[in-house]
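FW: tagging you since you asked about this chain on Friday. Here's the raw sequence from the shared folder, copied in full. Didn't touch anything.
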Amino acid sequence: MAKKRIVIALGHHALGTNLPEQKTAVARTAKVIADFIQSGWQVALTHSNAPQVGMIHTAMNEFGKQHDGYTSAPMSVCSAMSQGYIGYDLQNGIRAELMTRGIYKSVATILTQMMVNPYDEAFYTPMKPIGRFMTAEEAKEEEDKGNYVEEVPGKGFRRVVASPKPVSIVEIDIIKAVMDADQIVIACGGGGIPVMEQGCYLKGASAVIEKDRAAGLLAKEIDADVLMILTNVDNVTLNFGKPDARPISMMNKTEAASYIEDNQFEPSSMLPKIEASLDFIEHGRNRKAIITSLEKAEESLEGKAGTIITEA
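HL: got it, structure written out here
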């Protein structure tokens, strides 16, 4: 009998924002992941990278400015570096936790590229801030390079990049092979490296992809049974931040679509999670998506916590 597959998307809370925090957070997260594996699930992981990629982008750019012979790094390179940096800690943490339980499986981080549409409307309206705040002079230099910047009153200027939707996963065959071998894979980290096809070559795009959309596409492509998106709240909440706020434990795709129509979900946070969940559910049978916190992950799989999204 084939094992059930789950894609788990780890949010900031599961990873921390700097190296010491990440080490501590990964040790805690590895225990939860190991519980799923010990229970018989085939697990594919993806993760956020916003603090890490911002740190790398800033560090590379500052180093390039201060040292002759070095240059700044494009977003695609910074994204690749963050995948390796986070994946390294994750795969070692999970491996160690599994070994203490007598489970001997390989854990591999796959540097993942995501194909995007060069005509995606997101490229015309960049909205994802990246890097440190800049002076007006530095902002002008960025604009002269063709980059977008926005002014944040009282803080300065900040570069913003596009967030296009992922179209396909370049390394999907390798990911499937690892899953078919019943091993653990970490892929599409930080939403993956956005690339565009130019003949036989792939060119990195100056953009970042929402990791939840990447997780939904990954779950769809490997025919997972469950997509679990872990965030910093236990449940999806209707009327969030208002006196009549109401956490919701279950919704079907029709109800979810209605909530989207009513603008119930913040465009830069909860909305991509809901949309990714719906896309995953609609392209398969007997699938479900779960949105919850790391602490409630195991309970939510049993239907005792979190927000569960189903076909009907």
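FW: The chain has a mean pLDDT of 91.
HL: agreed, and The first helix runs from residue 19 to 38.
FW: great, closing this out.
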